[in-house]
Amino acid sequence: xxxxxxxxxxxxxxxxxxxxxxxxxxxxxxxxxxxxxxxxxxxxxxxxxxxxxxxxxxxxxxxxxxxxxxxxxxxxxxxxxxxxxxxxxxxxxxxxxxxxxxxxxxxxxxxxxxxxxxxxxxxxxxxxxxxx
Length: 132
Hints:
Blueprint lengths: L5 H14 L4 E5 L7 H18 L2 E5 L3 H7 L2 E6 L2 E7 L9 H8 L28
Helix pairs in contact: 1-2
């Protein structure tokens, strides 16, 4: 009997998906159960395979630091609606309160705050998209 580690399993699944030559690949939290090092390896494999096959990629993730390093454009959704769009490199300067709250939930490793801020949701967010 053979077993695969989480990272190996993710790589196999990515290879199986891309092998069929899809024009668009949707990856929903593709690295959520993996540690940071394995996540980067899996994303590197995914990036290489989609570039080689000319496949478009839609990545769904709550991991905003990963999104900023891996994606080109970002659409932030709240309540099933897009509330903000921007280039991934500009995500740290997002204006929407929900996006700001998600960013604040990822404190820096050096000098982290004593407490994480609490996101206070507002129903008005569903109608006030900001972004380009």
